[in-house]
What does this fold into?
Amino acid sequence: MSDAAAQDAAQDTPLGRAGPRLPPAAALVSLALLAFWVLAALAGPALLPHGPADFVTDDGFAPASAAHPLGTDYLGRDMLARLVSAARATLAISVLATLGAHLVGDTLGILAALRGGVVDQVLGRVAEVMLSMPKLIVGLVVIAVVGPSATVLVLVTAAVYTATVFRISRAIALDLVALDYVRAARLRGEGTGWLIFGELLPNMLPLLAADFALRMSFAILFMSNLSFLGLGLQPPAADWGGLVRENLEGLASGSPAALYPTLAIASVTIALNLLVDRLGAASRPREALH
Amino acid sequence: MRDLGRLLLTRLLGALAVLLTVSVLIFAGGEMLPGDVAQIMLGEGASEAEVAQLRRQLDLDRPATERYLDWLGGMARGDWGVSYTTKRPIGEILPVRARNTALLTALTVAVAVPVALGLGVLMALLAGTAFDRAASVVLLGLSAMPEFLLATAGVLVFAVRLQWLPAISNVSLAGTLAEAARALALPVLTLSLIIVAQIARMTRATLVGLADRPFIEMAHLKGASRLRVVLVHALANAIGPLANIVTLNVAFLVSGVVVVETIFAVPGLAQLMINAVSNRDMPVVEACAMIFCATYVLLLLLADLFGATFNPRLRRSTP
It folds into this structure.
């Protein structure tokens, strides 16, 4: 990959967002939305009268009623209960996956920037190969080999985003390594640990946080796609993508069951993107990468 | 020009190396399949002798490196091996499937690229206005949505409510052109929405990013109209970056194609792959993965070259 200005604009990173600044209110609204879903995921299942696996109506796709505000799904299970339990699955898996991608990607990225030389070269080549494969295709091949499960979903999602995170944190760290205070720290003989935790990480955090939010929105889309294709969580467990898959046929007969999880996904990913817009504005180095 | 030739050569070799590595990874993936392939193919009830015979037939007794080289050589000749589930040569089904996917993608590019570029230029012209803001928010929203949401919304509106278009595209290219067009309308529309959102946002960003360059300032100062500055001065200098952006986004269309082919039952390569993944039909999965990865690497290479060709400074940079 070349580091042209155009390439920067072409990459959707928190460092080079394409678009006009949005008002601060947008960030507040998105924070509120995210807080709502986190609360729903944490407390919802305990508060709701029905479980996500309980059959509450005889027919599938019952319309909305006082007892079932969102109606029932294709098997007659309470849609609200399923939506909330799927929120738990979706958020947990995407947070874990993003965390994994950042733990590995940031560590290696900082290491590559600090060490340079052979370490940097080798890691860069590995990242290049990883980024040369379409993410969904990588996910499909892995799942064809090991079969679908929640653990596989977390690991695959983390794996496909690690190379991107590596490149971003390397670029950010590289900018800092050249600065006087880091060079001074190196000259006075500080250890690698101090350089990373004392000098680099504190200054990288705002941008890494912005990337975490953006990466998580991608992770949600990625895992939703896999689940939608029937290759993510397996029934009766379901994340939002799985709920869409289950209830898709209901659309033709006028049941909106499949729409709720799609709206849920859209609300969270859009909220995360709006948030990135604010977080990314905190500081922006010259260089942006894939 | 010599710089350009050298760049072309190094990038081509680089892409080839990457593709070879990818092929090793994909083949290794197939090797890691837990359990014995012959046993899986024959089912639980097969006798040991039958399994042993099939193992010989499939050449599973030979070392992995030998089989990898055979697999690689076979691909070059169009021999992709035999499907575990249908027992038929994969080479027989691939061309038809690949043609359908190529048609879907080509139509999408033909529809989406002019619209996206037009929209991006318009937003750049009107940068900062209410239209620009509104369009930016809508496009950001579109690009943050999963592909299946757009497809589902399309089915709901055009197939269920309005009943203009069929919800499932059983694309048989034997039918009339009008039939094929109707069948492909919703898939193409969905894919176009995805790609238009990205390309338009990036086009706007590229053009607006040029705004503070001296030559644009100069054009303004000598009294050229805003329209002329954007359409003539900025756009001419953005051709490289824009070609780069369009190509990258066509490459990124892969996951969209997978989802859309599944939803609308388009008998393309992606649908073939999804079914193979569900059946753990590794030879088919490997063949499809190789085709997708090769196309992807090729498009990334093309994007890279577009960027470099129109920006001489990039030609000297190390890859």
Notes: Residues 1-12, 282-290 of chain A have pLDDT under 50 and may be disordered. Chain A touches chain B through 56 residues (CB under 8 Å). Residues 41 and 88 of chain A are 4 Å apart (CA to CA).
